[in-house]
């Protein structure tokens, strides 16, 4: 038997226990709780044993613990201001996001993470491909929430229906579920725009024969003041994220750019609707091509900013001169999307 187990010295007074707890606390940091419990219940012999074991354990665990902390601090300090990498960080607000309804396509272990990869499709105007923008299960969740609320899509500011746009639409409430909040936040982080300047997610569903002919997403200068969404500033960028692929057709086509992107579930595209000066960029006019078979589902996410704010904070020159160079890059091992 180990000598310390036979040690029958007198039990310490409450004051002594408190003092020792205090000393242990100072000396051993996180180990003090376990030590003090051992002390009061089992006497000094056990205490010495537990302290020895804890001290040895802490010697082994400290380097890992410290390097973890250092890593967290370093990545926060170096990366948190960098919009190109910001979305990789799981949001502090969202780490408890566990809404999981089997009927809504989610598993119980859902956690909000932002881990997609990016590829440049076109430099000017900027069009990006967002590979796996949605996590597994998010598309099904969004479709299940939207389906009961779908109505014939209106066209632009006219609030009317037109053969120009024959799809169905449902707007989700902001932060309707923690998953919706996670997706809103993913987009907001990407463009470094406050969450309340991002429109609620607009779900769209097309069936065979339905389409959205060539149109613009930006708000023209003449109605910027009067348009409902214009009050939040220009829709300076668009995310279009695909929830379900049709069996044929349904490409998103930028005629002037010469890009036609086939919808792929969970992937998305992002483009800037305005020039670096914040002026509407007509080259970004685009269409959702007719569906040949099956259904296509997607979401529009539109960030806004007051034009002046946009000009001051989002200009490439300002960003390049004020921010440290990115220290991390995204994986590029995804197969390139195919274009028709
Ligand atoms: O469905 C598409 O591919 C395009 C949709 C679109 O551009 C829109 O809803 O504004
Ligand atoms: Fe559009």
UniProtKB/TrEMBL annotation:
<feature type="transmembrane region" description="Helical">
    <location>
        <begin position="46"/>
        <end position="65"/>
    </location>
</feature>
<dbReference type="GO" id="GO:0005783">
    <property type="term" value="C:endoplasmic reticulum"/>
</dbReference>
<dbReference type="GO" id="GO:0031418">
    <property type="term" value="F:L-ascorbic acid binding"/>
</dbReference>
<dbReference type="InterPro" id="IPR045054">
    <property type="entry name" value="P4HA-like"/>
</dbReference>
<dbReference type="GO" id="GO:0005506">
    <property type="term" value="F:iron ion binding"/>
</dbReference>
<keyword id="KW-0472">Membrane</keyword>
<dbReference type="InterPro" id="IPR005123">
    <property type="entry name" value="Oxoglu/Fe-dep_dioxygenase_dom"/>
</dbReference>
<keyword id="KW-0560">Oxidoreductase</keyword>
<keyword id="KW-0223">Dioxygenase</keyword>
<keyword id="KW-0812">Transmembrane</keyword>
<dbReference type="InterPro" id="IPR006620">
    <property type="entry name" value="Pro_4_hyd_alph"/>
</dbReference>
<dbReference type="GO" id="GO:0004656">
    <property type="term" value="F:procollagen-proline 4-dioxygenase activity"/>
</dbReference>
<feature type="domain" description="Fe2OG dioxygenase">
    <location>
        <begin position="197"/>
        <end position="305"/>
    </location>
</feature>
<keyword id="KW-1133">Transmembrane helix</keyword>
<keyword id="KW-0479">Metal-binding</keyword>
<dbReference type="InterPro" id="IPR044862">
    <property type="entry name" value="Pro_4_hyd_alph_FE2OG_OXY"/>
</dbReference>
<dbReference type="Pfam" id="PF13640">
    <property type="entry name" value="2OG-FeII_Oxy_3"/>
</dbReference>
<protein>
    <recommendedName>
        <fullName>Fe2OG dioxygenase domain-containing protein</fullName>
    </recommendedName>
</protein>
<keyword id="KW-0408">Iron</keyword>
């Amino acid at each position: 038997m180990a000598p310390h187990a036979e040690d029958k010295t007198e039990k310490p007074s409450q004051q002594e226990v408190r003092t020792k707890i205090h000393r242990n606390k100072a000396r051993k940091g996180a180990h003090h709780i376990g030590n003090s419990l051992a002390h009061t219940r089992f006497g000094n012999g056990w205490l010495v044993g537990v302290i020895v074991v804890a001290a040895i354990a802490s010697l082994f665990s400290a380097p890992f613990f410290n390097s973890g902390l250092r890593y967290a601090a370093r990545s926060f300090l170096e990366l948190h201001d960098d919009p190109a990498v910001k979305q990789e960080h799981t949001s502090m607000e969202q780490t408890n996001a566990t809404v999981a309804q089997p009927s809504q396509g989610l598993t119980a272990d859902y956690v909000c993470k932002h881990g997609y990869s990016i590829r440049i499709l076109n430099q000017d105007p900027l069009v990006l491909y967002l590979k796996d923008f949605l996590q597994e299960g998010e598309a099904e969740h969004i479709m299940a929430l939207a389906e009961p609320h779908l109505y014939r899509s209106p066209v632009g500011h006219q609030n009317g229906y037109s053969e120009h746009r024959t799809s169905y639409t449902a707007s989700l409430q902001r932060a309707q579920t923690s998953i919706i909040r996670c997706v809103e936040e993913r987009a907001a982080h990407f463009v470094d725009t406050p969450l309340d300047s991002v429109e609620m997610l607009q779900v769209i569903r097309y069936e065979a024969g339905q389409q959205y002919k060539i149109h613009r997403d930006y708000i023209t200068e003449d109605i910027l003041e009067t348009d409902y969404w214009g009050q939040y500033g220009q829709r300076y960028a668009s995310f279009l994220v695909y929830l379900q692929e049709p069996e044929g057709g349904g490409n998103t086509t930028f005629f002037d750019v010469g890009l036609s992107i086939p919808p792929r579930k969970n992937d998305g595209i992002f483009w800037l609707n305005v020039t670096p000066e914040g002026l509407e960029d007509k080259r970004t006019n685009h269409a959702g091509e007719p569906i040949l078979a099956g259904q296509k589902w997607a979401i529009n996410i539109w960030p806004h900013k007051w034009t002046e704010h946009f000009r001051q904070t989002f200009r490439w020159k300002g960003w390049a001169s004020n921010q440290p160079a990115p220290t991390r890059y995204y994986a590029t091992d995804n197969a390139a999307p195919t274009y028709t």
